[in-house]
């Protein structure tokens, strides 16, 4: 069914978008290594401002509450790493949530080798 290099993409449309390139957005599914490794930079680079703010607040709360409860630095670090893992697993879902909030609607799922192939496949079926 799926080849070794095929990825799953969800398609979001905004028919009333001014630019044709803004009408369709593909969001990859799965774990995002870059969101896990570069967390806040990935969020800001993908223009997920509210999610980035929430991430910073969550990290701050882990440190502050951990300090108030006299939790060891290792435990605080493990909690922060756990938050990063959660971000890695949910990064693309957060991106999709932001698109829906901006008025995009879910249009389908495409399996392809790359975003370019997925875009081409979407336009073949949409025409």
End-to-end separation:
25 Å
The radius of gyration computed from the alpha-carbon positions, rounded to a whole number of angstroms, is 18 Å
Structural class estimated from helices and strands = alpha+beta
The biggest sheet, with number of strands, parallel, antiparallel or mixed sense and barrel status, is: 3 strands, antiparallel
Ranges with pLDDT <50 over ≥5 residues?
A: none
Describe this structure in words.
With 127 residues, the protein is α+β, with helices and mostly antiparallel strands. It is 58% helix and 16% strand. The chain has 4 helices and 3 strands. Strands 2-1-3 form a 3-stranded antiparallel beta sheet, with helices on both faces. The longest helix has 29 residues, at 73-101. It is elongated and about 60 Å long. The mean pLDDT is 91.
Gist of the model:
With 127 residues, the protein is of the alpha+beta class.
List the defining traits of the structure above.
4 helices, 127 residues, three-stranded antiparallel beta sheet, elongated
Topology, pairings included?
Blueprint: E1 7-13, E2 24-28, H1 33-45, H2 49-68, H3 73-101, E3 105-112, H4 115-126
Antiparallel strand pairs: 1-2, 1-3
């Amino acid at each position: 069914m799926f080849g070794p290099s095929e990825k799953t993409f969800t398609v979001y449309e905004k028919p009333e978008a001014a630019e044709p390139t803004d009408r369709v957005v593909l969001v990859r599914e799965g774990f995002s290594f870059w969101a896990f490794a570069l967390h806040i930079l990935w969020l800001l680079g993908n223009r997920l401002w509210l999610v980035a703010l929430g991430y910073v607040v969550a990290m701050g709360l882990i440190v502050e509450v951990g300090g108030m409860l006299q939790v060891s630095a290792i435990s605080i670090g493990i909690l922060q790493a756990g938050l990063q893992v959660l971000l890695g697993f949910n990064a693309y879902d957060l991106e999709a949530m932001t698109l829906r909030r901006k008025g995009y609607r879910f249009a389908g799922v495409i399996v392809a080798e790359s975003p370019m192939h997925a875009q081409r496949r979407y336009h073949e079926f949409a025409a």
